[in-house]
Amino acid sequence: MDQTISVRVNDRSYDRSVEPRLLLSDFLRHELELTGTHVGCEHGVCGACTVLLDGVAVRSCLLFAVQADGRDVSTVEGLDGGTQALHPIQHGFWERHGLQCGFCTPGILMSLVPFLQENPNPTEEEIRDLLSGNICRCTGYQKIVEAVQLGARLIQEKSA
Amino acid sequence: MKPAAFDYFAPGTVDEALGLLADYGGDAKPLAGGQSLVPTMNFRLAQPAVLVDLNGIEELFFIREEEGGLRCGAMTRQRSVERSALVQRISPLLHEAMPHIAHSQIRNRGTIGGSLAHADPAAELPVLAVALDARMYVRSVTDARWVSARDFYMGLFATAMLPEEMLVEVAFPTLPSGSGWAFDEVARQHGNYAMCGAAAVVGLDGRRVVERARLVFLSVGEGPVEAEQAAALLVGEQPNAEAIRAAAETAATQDIDPVGDIHAGPAFRRHLARVIAERVLTRACERAAGTEGQ
Ligand SMILES: Cc1cc2nc3c(=O)[nH]c(=O)nc-3n(C[C@H](O)[C@H](O)[C@H](O)COP(=O)(O)OP(=O)(O)OC[C@H]3O[C@@H](n4cnc5c(N)ncnc54)[C@H](O)[C@@H]3O)c2cc1C
Ligand code: FES
Ligand code: FES
């Protein structure tokens, strides 16, 4: 039986009627056509589908859309805050070649937003610990670590 | 890779949730963090007809000190346990082990009760519960009971709970003074399920002789596996390197009987068990004696 839900995604409200079994990842991609959230494994391992639920990084493939009723979801599409300009973390990835095919990138970016808010000056070990939750098959991670370091610096410069 | 259809309920209280579990019996499953349940539903290994979502039940989210011990509501997120100063103070072993569970994005959602109820033999929390003599508060519409962690685990993904029962709360007693503790594990990659791991709790008497010892393994059997012979060997001994090595050897060769999988064969698991047992027993004894880091 369908249920009516109201979800805020990137500061915009959406009302939809959905089946309870619809995954949040599929809701975002198929219902809202926000295809920036990628789907790799659908069992929580790859991290490509990571989004923020009320500001907390979670796997959207392990949540049902009905569970997001009345909640705030942030996806990679909202990172620019409507400005069409790259977020400082995205800038770090651009500058340091933190991506090749880009499949893993949205999930990594969304994991990084709350991480760098809480921890503006992370050590390399802390960065690698965070990245352990996101699989990248292209870069070998070294460039991602450098991109995070630059992104962290850019955020600080921006707020200074 | 999509879950089968189910009916979804989001009760606001434990009583409502228990009512739903009673109404639907074995057809219904509680949904906690979903970090184990939803993957199995996506693979259609599990096809529950009814999901009872516990995420809106506020009374299940808490960490508090009670009767000198730690109490956690079943829905307390693993991330909250990891970051709680109260947990660090009252139950430092739990605090030490939490970051080994999965990745931060999984712990943000995964719950303490979900992991304890899931009874995965590779999971950390059931092992910690047995090592620390935790007690589970289990309720149904008609019944409420406390079950010791040792009696709670009944084998592969099996617990003492009936389908209409729910884990509501877990209590971790404070360790007596003179206790030391440690946790360690080996995984291919940080955050993956470990190939082997162990928790140790050791108590020394006034003469610094071991009077209590407990060593519990993960990933070497069908649930948390207690190394009873190793623990018995250590009791009455001075906690020196030789005694610890002998206990670790006994644990790896006598107490456990691991099977192999694609990640590690039985011989490798025994090797890991011996090395990890030696490490955790050493650290636990040092902590008990107050000589850690000396
Ligand atoms: C990529 C990945 C890596 C992981 N790595 C690890 C790891 O290294 N170590 C580890 O321990 N875990 C790991 N996990 C599992 C994770 O810790 C889960 O959060 C945990 O196993 C289940 O908790 P949950 O709250 O998500 O429960 P759910 O998935 O919602 O539920 C699990 C089971 O318990 C039942 N249940 C839940 N709550 C209750 C309750 N209160 N009463 C009765 N039954 C209940 C459910 O019906 C279901 O059968 C990993 C998961 C993923 C996706
Ligand atoms: S698609 Fe969600 S973690 Fe891989
Ligand atoms: S850039 Fe291709 S998977 Fe990471």
Commentary on this structure:
The complex is a heterodimer of chains A (160) and B (294). Chain A contains 5 helices and 5 strands. Chain A is an alpha+beta fold and 160 residues long. Chain A has 2 domains: 75 residues, Beta-grasp domain (Ubiquitin-like (UB roll)); 72 residues, DNA polymerase, domain 1. A 5-stranded mixed sheet of chain A has the order 2-1-5-3-4, sandwiched between helices. Chain A starts with a strand and ends with a helix. Chain B is α+β, with helices and mostly antiparallel strands and 294 residues long. Chain B folds into 3 domains: 47 residues, Uridine Diphospho-n-acetylenolpyruvylglucosamine Reductase, domain 2, CATH 3.30.43.10; 116 residues, Uridine Diphospho-n-acetylenolpyruvylglucosamine Reductase, domain 3 (2-Layer Sandwich), CATH 3.30.465; 111 residues, Enolase-like, domain 1. Chain B starts with 6 loop residues before the first strand and ends in a 5-residue tail after the last helix. Classes of the chains: A alpha+beta (160), B alpha+beta (294). The interface between A and B is medium-sized, with 28 and 28 residues. The complex binds flavin-adenine dinucleotide and FE2/S2 (inorganic) cluster (2 copies). One FE2/S2 (inorganic) cluster (FES) binds next to loops of chain A. Chain B: GO terms for molecular function: FAD binding; oxidoreductase activity. Chain B: It comes from Caldilineaceae bacterium SB0675_bin_29. Chain B: This is Xanthine dehydrogenase family protein subunit M.
What's the CATH superfamily of the largest domain in chain A, by name? Answer: Beta-grasp domain
Number of helices of chain A: 5
Number of strands of chain A: 5
Helix content of chain B: 25-40%
GO molecular function (chain B): FAD binding; oxidoreductase activity
Keywords (chain B): FAD, Flavoprotein, Oxidoreductase
Protein name (chain B): Xanthine dehydrogenase family protein subunit M
Domain FAD-binding PCMH-type (chain B): 1-177
